[in-house]
Amino acid sequence: MTPSSEEAQNKMRYCLMKVCRLLCLVMTLPLHLMEITGLYGMYKRLFPWLAYNITFSYNDKMHKTKRELFRNVCKFANADGSLRLLEIGCGSGANFPFYPDGCTVTCTDPNPHFERYLRLSMDANKHLTYDTFMVVSGEDMEGVKDESVDVVVCTLVLCSVNNVQRVLQEVRRILRAGGAFYFLEHVVSDPSSWTYFYQHVFEPLWYYLGDGCTITRATWKDLEAADFTELHVRHVEALEVSLMIRPHIMGYSIK
User: How many Å from the N-terminal Cα to the C-terminal Cα in the chain?
Assistant: First the structure.
């Protein structure tokens, strides 16, 4: 294929993507109206139940990935062996099985309706000590003191926050010096891929079904700009999950 024909093909695909996205936007108008009128709030009550049940499937498929992600969390424990861990957007507690024995976990989530399912996960993971459940957004955790935690965890959350950079600022504020921020997030695919095409087409619908989830974010760029002392990030393809969210980044950064 010559450069000119390849360029023409890319332009055609881009135009097709825009048209298909517009059609998807039209399809989501009723959901948009529900959000404006406040009726969408009913879905926020239902979403924790959906997330809790999806958690089991995702954890099974991503078990090895999560084990690898959290393999060195104990490295950031204090001299006395204690480890204070805070999870942003804890949801139903999907990460609890992967945390080290004895660490003290503080849970935060902006959706209060997760608490019922969170308690079920707490009961199933007695190897942890639980501090409190705070109904707050990742952008504003003023109830958490400066430099008061050793590890902050955020998985499949930065896709749905309003301001990624603000969340990362809060992470740096509450982490002690030398503490770590662990992340596992789905991200936008390579522009040359069909995954990228489908992500941009169906994003408007995915946003509502996923309670604010955005599937076209290049979150690694936000992490690179967050001014951590060290950043360990790896791009992976989660072939076991939906095509829309197969591109992932995983790793940790150190304050």
Answer: 48
